[in-house]
Amino acid sequence: MNSIAKVDPQHPLLHPWKLVLDTPAMSQLREDLTQWLWTGIPGAVVAGPARVGKTTALEQVCDQLVDRTDSPIPVLRVSIPLRDQSTVLSVYRQLCWSAGLSVSNRDRADQLADRFIHCICDTMCEAGVAQALLVVDECQRLSPRQFNVFAELYDKLRSIERALLVLFVGNDVETWSLINSMDPDCFAHLHGRFFRIRRLYRGIASADEVKYCLAQYDRLQFPPKSGNTFVAQYLPDAVNSGFRLAGAATIFWRVFRGFQKDHKLDSWGMQSFSITTNTLLTDFLPRYGAEALDDDMVEEAVRMSGLIPSLVKPLK
């Protein structure tokens, strides 16, 4: 067993929900959003499997978006809740609530619409730009009729020479099913504005992408600029002897491919990948040593990550 340096309780690996890895899919999303904003696209749909990392990627990418003059683009976000009744009013209420605006039971849909539009305009004015991005997460929970809310927002802002890009984000199977069920003639105004551009957001899809992500554990430092990498924090002796986690990329990918073939997985979701890597780095490898890293160890970590739903077992 290798010696383990004392770990700061604030270390990112001990708070995995705070650790966000850059991925090729995230880079592509950043590039797509920039292109859509710069060219004036009114809307697009990004969908992917559950827990693949869509929301986390957007949270990271949206803070980096700028226009052609390098001015930051304002971003408003709303997550659509599941409700017993799918009404236009409920969407406006959620939009206003997400923006921190006051909402009362007496408010009508048109009042809330005006309130939210004023909020968007104020946000643009503060940023010194004439466009904004509205991210609508969990869009598969919308009814076809509720999409009209976003068409109204887009049209009203356009009438005062303001641009709004509406990005719908959701789980792939439900989202594509919902959109495809909307008659292209009856909902032509929605298809034309929002559904022409569709993107599938995926997780890790190759050994090279696994290596790209693992290399960040070899490079990232905590505290920043301390010279103490994430891997060195837990495996100081191994790192001093030349061990690099990225060198195990082929093992990671080989193990995942076994699960992928057996369970027909499209890609390796970031939630599972991060849990797998964190488990290995903070538990298995310090306990058994870097030299013990093999397919069986990685497979056990993958199983613990929840990649494949486990059978319900009775309590003993």
Tell me what the structure shows:
It is a single chain. This protein has 316 residues and is of the alpha/beta class. The chain folds into two domains: 24-200, 3-Layer(aba) Sandwich (Rossmann fold); 204-304, no CATH class. The chain is 48% helix and 9% strand. The chain has helices at residues 24-39, 54-62, 88-98, 109-127, 148-159, 172-181, 188-195, 207-219, 230-234, 236-240, 249-263, 270-288, 295-304, and strands at 43-48, 75-79, 131-137, 163-171, 198-200. It has a five-stranded parallel beta sheet, with helices on both faces. Helix 5 (148-159) links the parallel strand 3 and strand 4 (163-171). The longest helix has 19 residues, at 109-127. The protein is elongated, with a radius of gyration of 23 Å. The two termini are 33 Å apart. The model has no long low-confidence stretch (mean pLDDT 93).
